[in-house]
Every structure is written in C-alpha cells, then in structure tokens.
Write a structure and sequence with these properties.
Blueprint (H helix, E strand, L loop, with lengths): L10 E8 L5 E8 L5 E7 L6 E3 L5 E3 L2 H11 L7 H17 L4 E3 H15 L1 H11 L5 H14 L6
Parallel strand pairs: 4-6
Antiparallel strand pairs: 1-2, 2-3, 4-5
Pfam family, one: ATP-cone
Protein name: Transcriptional repressor NrdR
Organism: Pseudoduganella danionis
C-alpha cells in the first residue's frame, strides 16, 4: 500500500479491525519512510454483468432501471415496497451468482417475469404484454390461462 503522504511503497499494518457495520476491514498503517499514520478500508466489490441488448449493444446493469420496470408493472397494485425490494435483490443475486460477465436482456426479462408472477398476477400480465409484444387478444388469453394454472382453488 502506497503512503498517501510521501508515496513510499512500504507500509506497516499496525492494527486490523472489522468495521462497525461488518462490511469492511479497517487497517491502521504506518509508513516506514516518513513515519506518518493513515487508515485504509477493504470492501468487497461486486461487479454486475453487462447487459447485452437485442441490437447487440452492451450497457451496464442498473438496479434503478430494474426498479422502474417493476414499479411500472406494479403501479396501483397492492404490493408492499419491501416485497419489491426483495424481488430486486433476488434478481441481482441470480445475476451475480450466474458468474457471467455478460447476460442477455431477455434473461433479465425472464427473471423479472418470474418475480412478478410470484408478486402479483395482474402486474405479470402487464409486463408480459409489453415484454413479449402481444399482438392480439389470443396472446393475452394464453398468458391469463398460464397464470390461472398456478392458482390455487378457492374453498367454498
């Protein structure tokens, strides 16, 4: 680690502790050249895969776009904010654990549809109608029938 004061490359670790939040390691260091002390933090860097769009262009994954898509489909639906946050975390976790450096936008769309199907059937139909580019009423009916198959029968 370079000393921030004299740029010397040799520093000595005096103390190591886990941060209060538990998400970083704090190290107290001393430069062997100028004898000044400073603190460094080590944090985990999670790198989300790039998104490959249908036209072949690549863009960075952003959770804000994901949130906006989910919220648009869930607009005026009785789904709590923590459930939306959990869905976003679930999608991000699947992307991170996939181990891929690039993912097709279609894969993310499928993950969103899985989460919406679980959260709210109407929001699922809304998203699917745009995502799958429904052309006629028959495609809506097929999607509704698909959601209906997952439904548990009501007790009389």
């Amino acid at each position: 680690m370079k000393c921030p004061f004299c740029q010397h490359e040799d520093t000595q670790v005096l103390d190591t502790r886990v941060s209060e939040e538990g998400d970083a390691i704090r190290r107290r260091r001393r430069c062997v050249n100028c004898d000044k002390r400073f603190t460094t933090y080590e944090r985990i860097e999670l790198v989300m895969p790039y998104v490959v769009k249908k036209n072949g262009s690549r863009t960075e994954f952003t959770a804000d776009k994901l949130r906006a898509s989910l919220l648009l489909a869930l607009r005026k639906r009785p789904v709590a904010a923590p459930a939306v946050d959990a869905a976003i975390l679930s999608i991000e976790e699947k992307l991170l654990t996939s181990g891929q450096r690039e993912v097709e936008s279609g894969y993310i769309g499928e993950l969103v549809m899985q989460e919406l199907k679980r959260l709210d059937k109407i929001a699922y139909i809304r998203f699917a109608s745009v995502y799958k580019n429904f052309e006629d009423l028959a495609e809506f009916q097929d999607a509704i029938a698909e959601v209906g198959q997952d439904r548990k029968p009501r007790k009389a």
